[in-house]
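User: Design a sequence. Structure:
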C-alpha cells in the first residue's frame, strides 16, 4: 500500500519538504506557498478511525455510512453542526473494537466523549493521533450518545481490517459515529489535511 499512498499523495518522494510557519515563510528559504492539501487523504499519520460501514449522523438527523460521506456534507455535532472539510482514508491493517456488543467499528485511538471528559481505549494513541488528552475508556464509563448517555458494559477487540475512515470538520470538531459522540482528527503537519 505504500506505493499506492505515495502515488496518490506524493508522500515519501525522498525530497524533503520545507516547513512553513504561520506567515507562509518556508524553512528552506523558498518563496513558494505551501502546497494545497488534497481533501481526501490516503494514508498519512494517525490511525484513529472507523470501518467503512460506520453510520454518521447528518445535520438533518439522517445517517450515512462514513465511506459515503462527501466534502461539504454537514454532520451533527454536539451543540450544532459541522461541515466536512476533508476525509482521511487509512489503508493498512488496523484492529477494531466493539463497545456494548455494537459490532467492531472503531480503532483503539479514537476519543469518545464521556461524562468525565474524553476517553479512548488507547489514550496515548489518542494524544498522538488527535492531540486530544484522554483517559482510558473502561467498562463502567458513560459515553455521550445521540440519545443521551450509554454506560459501557463491554469493550472487545475484533478482527483486523485494512481500510478505515475519519472526518475533518470545521466548527466543533466532534460528530456522532454509530450514535456515539467522537472527536475528529486534528493533527497537522504530518501528512494530514490542513488546519481544521
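Assistant: Done.
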Amino acid at each position: 500500500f505504500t506505493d499506492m499512498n505515495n502515488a496518490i499523495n506524493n508522500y515519501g518522494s525522498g525530497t524533503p519538504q520545507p516547513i512553513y510557519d504561520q506567515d507562509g515563510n518556508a524553512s528552506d528559504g523558498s518563496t513558494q506557498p505551501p502546497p494545497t492539501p488534497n481533501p481526501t487523504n490516503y494514508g498519512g499519520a494517525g490511525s484513529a478511525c472507523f470501518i467503512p460501514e460506520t453510520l454518521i449522523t447528518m445535520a438533518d438527523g439522517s445517517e450515512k455510512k462514513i465511506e459515503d460521506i462527501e466534502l461539504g456534507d454537514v454532520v451533527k455535532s454536539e451543540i450544532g453542526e459541522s461541515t466536512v472539510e476533508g476525509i482521511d482514508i487509512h489503508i493498512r491493517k488496523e484492529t477494531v473494537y466493539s463497545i456494548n456488543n455494537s459490532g467492531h467499528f472503531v480503532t483503539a485511538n479514537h476519543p469518545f466523549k464521556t461524562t468525565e471528559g474524553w476517553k479512548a481505549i488507547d489514550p496515548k494513541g489518542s494524544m498522538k493521533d488527535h492531540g486530544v488528552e484522554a483517559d482510558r475508556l473502561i467498562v463502567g464509563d458513560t459515553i455521550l450518545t445521540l440519545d443521551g448517555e450509554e454506560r459501557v458494559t463491554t469493550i472487545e477487540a475484533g478482527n483486523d481490517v485494512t481500510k478505515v475512515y475519519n472526518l475533518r470538520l470545521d466548527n466543533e470538531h466532534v460528530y456522532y459515529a454509530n450514535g456515539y459522540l467522537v472527536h475528529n482528527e486534528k493533527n497537522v503537519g504530518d501528512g494530514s489535511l490542513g488546519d481544521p
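The chain is about 10% helix and 35% strand. Residues 2-9 form the longest helix (8 residues).
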